[in-house]
Amino acid sequence: MGKKATKTRYTREFKLETVRMFENSKLTVDDLSKKTGISRSLCYRWIAEYRENPENAFPGSGKRKRGTAQEEEIHRLRKQLKEAEEDLEILKNFTPSSRGDRSDRTVPNDPGTRGGRP
User: Model-level pTM?
Assistant: First the structure.
């Protein structure tokens, strides 16, 4: 069996250096790709992300990009809403059944219950 290919992870600094190389030179994306050994599609993605928000580009693995104060508030409220919905779903599972009180159940052959024999 062959080895499974591992995904190459690039540091933020490497990505910034690559994008700046493109921005500060007359290299085409094809030339940049050949020079760095990175696929053209990845170069395009890095350039687009950098141009969209240079200060917060390439935040790292699993880290969310920081936004404006309003975007941060929206994120916080969505997270709070999700947690509240999860809590509500848990509480729904613990509410008494709508089928009525179950105290009238009997245990067969138990003298202390209604259906048992003495």
Answer: 0.49
| DSSP H or E run through 94 | helix 69-94
The string over 44-65, giving b where at least 16 C-beta atoms fall within 10 Å of a residue's C-beta and e elsewhere, is eebbebbeeeeeebbeeeeeee
43 neighbors 18 (Cβ within 8 angstroms): yes
pLDDT bracket for residue 114 (50, 70, 90):
low
Cβ–Cβ under 8 Å, residues 2 and 20: no
Least confidently predicted of 37-51, 53-67, 103-117: 103-117
Burial of 30 (0-12, 13-18, 19+ CB in 10 A): exposed
Q: How far apart are CA 15 and CA 21, in angstroms?
A: 10
Report the SS3 class of residue 110: coil
Question: Beta-carbon neighbour count of residue 18 at 10 Å?
Answer: 21
